[in-house]
């Protein structure tokens, strides 16, 4: 059975985005891109909520073809093009996208089937509301939180509506020269 791994940026006070979805506070650079790419290229299935998928779809399919495309843009665009994308959405039309499966937002059984029938791991990119729903169903197995050295004060939380304590096992930490810290945890259910 495949693991679902949450891959998300967070503020020091545990927000995944500002109150209106702002992400201009997230620090990314070649060091972080290279670190993430080592992990990302080991999987061939990506999971997104609708909003994050539409943001990704508006950039990555043509990113490598843009004048002055960076090494990261070329590499990630190639990965994005070849990977199987799964999107949780009640409104998107699957036929409009290549190499993409659309699953209804509340179809927990379809996510369980995805885990059961996927070889390797499934990366959940950002998508806070999707992460909240999957955490509520104990479907996320591991998290890679890229904690940025900023306090937002308010916003969209990384973890929401937790009714019980969630034990975690620290697997790895990595400190970047920018002050961003990656915390990799296994979720214990």
UniProtKB/TrEMBL annotation:
Residues 3-181 form the Bacterial bifunctional deaminase-reductase C-terminal domain. Pfam families: RibD_C (PF01872). GO terms for molecular function: 5-amino-6-(5-phosphoribosylamino)uracil reductase activity. Gene3D superfamilies: Dihydrofolate Reductase, subunit A (3.40.430.10). One of its GO terms (biological process) is riboflavin biosynthetic process. This is Dihydrofolate reductase. It comes from Filimonas effusa.
